[in-house]
Amino acid sequence: MHISSFLIQEGRDSDYAALSDLMDVMRAERVPDEPSAPLSERQVAWRSVPELYRIRTWLAWEDGQAVGRAEAGYPDVPENAHLLHTLFEVHPAHRRRGLGRTLLAEVVTYAETLGRRSLLLSSVSNVPDGEAFLQRIGARPALEMRVSRLELADVDAGLLDRWLEAGPAADFELGFWTGVYPDEHLEDIARLYDILNTAPRGELEVEDVRTSAEELRQRDRSFAATGQRRWVAYALERASGRFVGFTELDWHPARPGTLSQGATGVFPEFRGRGLGRWLKAAMLRRVMLELPEARRIETGNAQSNAPMLAINVALGFRPHRTLINWQLEVEQARRYLDG
């Protein structure tokens, strides 16, 4: 067994092919009812990762096959300079052989070199081996997320009508951005993402993040290169001309059956006026009118985010799996490795 390492934007074709094969195996374990993206699409995505993001990948090889991987990345921004976003995966047939520990050692050394003192990790409920590994190395669970699905055949069209009719249209305008964001609104859209700093964080030790217009430009270039589609519904206050809320939806046209519901948020001072329900209902109505091949929508919310969960449950979203975000101090990881 040997380990190779590369920046994700700079991998060789052979690296990408082996990584894609491993990802197919891991995805089949995690979401067996969903198709995987082909290698060609993933290669474009990896080579198009925004310059702002520094992502290093390690592959564990046996007999010419990648049987495990680690990933460690961070955005090159002032906030959260103590964090390293990390991921560990080992092929089910190669577990309990020390591969996870070997990959952890690579990531910990990298974090020490960068001066980053804390790792962010995650596990999913239908892959219990991941949670067991994180417990073993001393990580602490910090935020529990509910991943939910909405089967579009079960949507209550009457409920959407009622929510749309009750929307505060006298004071707010509801609109859509389709595809890349319009350049003339980039600064305003960047400020919309500030809403995400008000989302529940549980016990995660993280700082607020301020999204820049340049980051949005880089994301959009990457997004366009991969062929992804995106709709964003927004609410604009008529009196001030200020964007006050939004909800995102994206998908790939090669796999139109499942859509991904991204962020949804309303600035705190505008909550309690039905904007969240209005935005969600408008998005769902458009999906049902314009995307006949879509079968379901998947989304994730903090278990502690009662207001957003209430909206999603009312729409018909049902729990599918649980995702836990963990945090691990690099010093603790080093003690585990040296023990």
UniProtKB/TrEMBL annotation:
InterPro entries: Acyl_CoA_acyltransferase, Bact_Acetyltransf, GNAT_dom. Keywords: Acyltransferase, Transferase. Signal peptide: none annotated. Residues 9-165, 179-338 form the N-acetyltransferase domain. It holds the Pfam family Acetyltransf_1. GO terms for molecular function: acyltransferase activity, transferring groups other than amino-acyl groups. SUPFAM superfamilies: Acyl-CoA N-acyltransferases (Nat). PANTHER family: AMINOALKYLPHOSPHONATE N-ACETYLTRANSFERASE-RELATED-RELATED. This is GNAT superfamily N-acetyltransferase.
